[in-house]
Specification:
Elements: H1 3-10, E1 19-21, E2 24-26, H2 33-39, E3 48-55, E4 64-65, H3 70-75, E5 87-88, E6 95-96, H4 101-108, E7 112-119, H5 127-136, H6 148-156, E8 170-173, E9 182-183, E10 186-187, E11 189-192, H7 195-202, H8 216-232, H9 234-244, H10 256-269, E12 276-282, H11 290-314, E13 321-326, E14 347-352, E15 359-361, E16 379-380, H12 381-393, H13 397-404, E17 429-431, E18 442-449, E19 453-460, E20 466-475, E21 478-485, E22 495-503, E23 506-514
Parallel strand pairs: 3-12, 3-13, 7-15, 7-16, 8-11, 8-12
Antiparallel strand pairs: 1-2, 4-6, 5-6, 7-14, 9-10, 13-14, 17-18, 18-21, 19-20, 19-22, 22-23
């Protein structure tokens, strides 16, 4: 059972329990998932998944090389990777492309897994359609308009967009969000190429302070405007995370993937609680002159991921992040007449991070028993999706069914995780319990900053709505006391409320009680 489900079951006397305080009836905290998330001293999950898209169809056989299989060199006499240059994999007859030196080091450190022969039944050889299949987690014959990550986030945030999470649910580094991040209610992602430019773009944006349109047709417009206006508020948190975060590793120059991963690492270190990030490396459609092109792409992948992993480790956030590569298909076994390869089927996926159960999963590719010169897949890519969601984010079987639309066996890719305490920077920020508590009509909330920081202090009701912003801006070090007064707030009923402090990378929430 997830911790949040446990809280909803037992909080304040159990599900459906009536709670009274001084004979005043109150709503049980456990009845509302938003309240549970605000109150819970444990983050529902502090884990992060970074999806790296290798667009164009990565050649799996020249990435994870069957160098001890003579058929490989028979079928690829010109573009096959020389056995003398292959980076050997311990306890395996497979090896890595010579560009993947850091991947091999991660493997030797126990932080890297290879899943062989990943694909799906009745494969499609169109870039567009196969990409959609991977993004939506659909069968080859089924057209879906929502993505697997979008559906997962909809399970986690069922009240969105009526109730906006405090942090972006997902971020794609790029100009727009992919289909994978679309849910039943629309996109679940922010997309930008630079967090500071994103902030400048939306600062004082067109959707702040708009007038409501009082017509039937205007209701839909008002709703759309609200969602956009609320979404734009994330720009402040994104910029603050970018300002607070550090890149302690040196990233390679002229590497578009490294540029994207550098932003992701900085946002995670800066305290942004976003769960999902999507980054992209393009150019894998290697129909001709593949050798040098593929070498360059794998060099970018290798050095970009290596810098990212080092950055996570130096910032002490390496125990939170898992990376995963996907590509819409592999390449055909036989090279073509242009020193390249054509669209194929199954290919390996990479999973990396400190939380990964290292090793090679699956059999070596069978280069003899082919279907139309293509490999036969061993694992459905949705098995990998299910494994990561279940083992990293503790997704339930019911949630997985709603996300992937059918049941899939999983692989033990992630080391079993327990709930972890919310990351707090000990001694730098202290949030005190309000006094008096319970109170009427006012109470004082105090906090201490050991160093100057951007600060936000907000009061929420049990549905997650902001009741009042008590502080929002840059503050010097010191101890502060803020008064929350309900005298002029006749609409506020007796009950439990929450106050949440965010200061740099620190955030904490406490509850208080109004008694009228």
């Amino acid at each position: 059972m997830k911790r949040r489900d446990f809280i909803k079951t037992i909080a304040v006397g159990g599900a459906g329990a009536a709670l009274t305080f001084n004979s005043i009836p109150m709503k049980a905290l456990g009845m509302n998932s938003v309240a549970a998330k605000l109150l819970d001293p444990f983050v529902d999950t502090d884990k992060v998944l970074v999806v790296i898209q290798l667009l164009g169809g990565n050649d799996g056989l020249n990435t994870v090389v069957p160098y001890q299989d003579n058929q490989y060199y028979v079928k690829r006499p010109n573009i096959g990777i020389s056995s003398s240059s292959v980076l050997t994999i311990p306890n395996s007859t497979m090896g890595l492309h010579p560009a993947l030196t850091e991947f091999r080091n991660l493997m030797l450190d126990g932080k890297f897994a290879v899943v062989q022969n990943v694909g799906y039944p009745n494969p499609n050889f169109s870039h567009f359609r196969s990409t959609d299949i991977w993004h939506t987690a659909s069968d080859a014959s089924t057209i879906l308009t929502t993505g697997w990550l979008g559906r997962y986030l909809h399970e986690e945030y069922p009240n969105y967009p009526g109730q906006m999470p405090n942090d972006p649910m997902s971020i794609q580094i790029g100009t727009s969000a992919d289909l994978s991040l679309i849910s039943q209610v629309g996109t679940m992602a922010l997309s930008f190429q630079d967090p500071n430019q994103f902030y400048q773009l939306v600062q004082g944006g067109a959707f702040s302070g708009y007038e409501r349109v009082k017509t039937l047709a205007g209701d839909e417009l008002n709703f759309t405007r609200k969602v956009m206006a609320d979404s734009l508020q994330y720009a402040t948190w994104v910029k603050q995370a970018a300002d607070n975060g550090q890149n302690l590793a040196t990233y390679p120059a002229n590497n578009r993937l490294a540029d994207q991963l550098k932003i992701v690492a900085k946002l995670i270190d800066g305290g942004l609680q976003t769960r999902l990030y999507v980054v992209t490396l393009v150019g894998f459609d290697t129909h001709s002159n593949q050798t040098n092109t593929h070498l360059n792409l794998l060099n970018q992948l290798n050095s970009g991921v290596a810098a990212f992993m080092q950055d996570l480790s130096l910032n002490n956030i390496n125990n939170r992040v898992v990376g995963m590569t996907i590509s819409e298909f592999g390449r055909r076994v036989n090279e073509n007449g242009s020193s390249g390869t054509d669209h194929g089927t199954a290919a390996p996926m990479f999973i990396f991070g400190d939380l990964v159960n290292e090793g090679v999963y699956g059999n070596n590719p069978d280069l003899i028993n082919l279907v139309n010169n293509n490999l036969i897949h061993q694992y459905d890519f949705r098995q990998i999706y299910a494994s990561v969601l279940k083992q990293l984010f503790a997704a339930t079987d019911d949630e997985l069914l709603n996300v992937l639309l059918q049941q899939f066996n999983t692989l033990p890719l992630i080391i079993p995780q327990n709930s972890m305490p919310k990351k707090q920077i000990a001694g730098e920020v202290i949030l005190n319990q309000n006094f008096p508590n319970p109170f009427n009509p006012s109470t004082k909330i105090s906090f201490t900053l050991k160093q100057a920081s951007n600060v936000s202090l907000k009061v929420y009701d049990t549905s997650g709505r902001v009741v009042q912003t008590l502080a929002d801006g840059y503050m010097n070090s010191g101890t502060y006391s803020v008064t929350f007064d309900v005298t002029e707030r006749s609409s506020l009923s007796s009950g439990v409320y929450f106050y949440k402090l965010r200061a740099g990378k620190f955030q904490d929430t406490k509850k208080m009680m109004v008694v009228k």
